[in-house]
Amino acid sequence: MNGLQLYYEIHGAGQPLILMHGGIGSTTMFAELLPALLTGRQVIAIDLQAHGRTADIDRPLRYESMGDDIAGLLRHLDVGQADLMGYSLGGGVALRTAIQYPAAVRKLIILSAPCKRDGWYPEVMAAASSAGPDSAEQMKPTPFYEAYARTAPRPEDWPVLHAKLGEMVRRDYDWSPEVAALHIPALLIFGDADSVRPAHIVEFFEGLGGGKRDAGWNGSGISKARLAIIPGVTHYNILSSPLLAPMVNDFLETTPVGSGNS
Fold first, then answer.
1. What b/e readout covers 104-115, taking b as 16+ CB neighbours within 10 angstroms?
2. Geometric angle at alpha carbon 90, from 154 and 178, rounded to 5°
3. Is residue 39 predicted with pLDDT exceeding 90?
4. CA dihedral in degrees (57, 58, 60, 61; nearest 10)?
5. Is 196 exposed, middle or buried (0-12, 13-18, 19+ CB in 10 A)?
6. Do 24 and 53 meet the contact criterion of CB atoms below 8 Å apart?
7. Which of 107, 157, 192, 210 could bridge to 205 as Cys pair (CB 3.0-4.6 Å)?
8. Stated pTM of the model
9. pLDDT digits (tens, 9 = 90+) for 73-109
10. In this structure, what DSSP letter does residue 171 have?
């Protein structure tokens, strides 16, 4: 697909849900969450370009091209429309997929990811922008490297992954106008101690059509955008929150499909 041999795992059966992991991670990030998402649903977990079991190719890391990869996988699997859920880096990929291929997305779930670069705290961007050979060496004693070395087709590409991620996150982006044009039911989930600024979280939610007015006594004015803030949770442990799976399942099972912005 697009010159990339994309690794994916398929679990269960039913309406497809695509899972996209965070930076320097892999499908294993969803190991704790996966069983709770499988009831009546097919879950397809993906290793993005240069991550996990997906070998890198001679192409920069870009949210847009990884969005193309997801659309290519859906065509390969003959999936007409899927739900998407992405965390951090994967959240940006899920959002770009929805922007670039809206007809292929039924519902969208973004975990701990902004829709523009300065939505992150400045210190988070500064640290991410410094990724390169030095950060790759510093992270060798961590579980991230252990998992990468165990599963990657070319473990020696670890410094290359860091360099490509650093180059990618140094690029400015603001997808707010494209977010405002989306008509897909979307759920944003963040921790109250996340790496994304609270002011941007609200801005993102409003861009999707949420928070524009009082919903009324009978809820008739509620938008198809949803926002959840999990208390006492950071960017780094949100996938382990026991509150996460019920939020995701409720959104996928009960939120009407139709015009997202209102």
1. bbbbbbbbbbbb
2. 135
3. no
4. 0
5. buried
6. no
7. 210
8. 0.95
9. 999 999 999 999 999 999 999 999 999 999 999 999 9
10. S
d(CA 26, CA 52): 5
- Cα torsion 251, 252, 255, 258 to 10°: value is 130
- Measured at the alpha carbon of residue 104, what is the angle toward residues 72 and 5, in degrees to the nearest 5? 15
Whole-number Å distance between alpha carbons of 201 and 208: 11
Tokens of 219: 């809820």
Question: Environment class of residue 3 by beta-carbon count within 10 Å: exposed (0-12), middle (13-18) or buried (19+)?
Answer: exposed
Residue linked to tokens 């989306």: 182
Predicted confidence (pLDDT) at residue 28 exceeds the cutoff of 50 = yes
Residue 249 neighbours by CB distance under 10 Å? 15
SS3 assignment for 2-31: CCCCCEEEEEECCEEEEEECCCCCCHHHHC
Residue 162 has a pLDDT of: 96
Ordered by where they begin, the domains of the chain are 7-249 (3.40.50.1820)
Work out the burial of residue 158: count CB atoms within 10 Å of its CB; fewer than 13 is exposed, 13-18 middle, 19 or more buried. buried
**What token pair was written down for 180?**
């405002």
User: Does pLDDT of 220 surpass 90?
Assistant: no
pLDDT at residue number 259? 47
pLDDT at 221 over 50: yes
